[in-house]
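Hi W., the zinc ion complex you wanted:
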Amino acid sequence: MSKALAKLARLAAERERDRMRDEERAALDRIAAEAADAGSSFTYPRGGRFKPSTVLGVLRRDGFKCKGCGEPGNLTVEGGSRKFEDLRTVCRSCAED
Ligand SMILES: [Zn+2]
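Structure:
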């Protein structure tokens, strides 16, 4: 690859990373706002291995309620993988960790 092409590819990759960061930051804000609207609160899972946009999708799918007891308070998400289908919303009492 020529130097100019390599530079273009690098710039495109940087732009993509910036866009992703913006989207993920926005998703974090949405989680806090929508949890408050639902009368809930959300604690981010330890380790930060889930993307905010994925977590927001899981919370929306589960209606901002614990899948164990149905309560809306003090939520987090857990799951065996990072995949949307494998994650579920749980409250701190029902969380496995
Ligand atoms: Zn629960």
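Residues 3-91 form one domain.

W.
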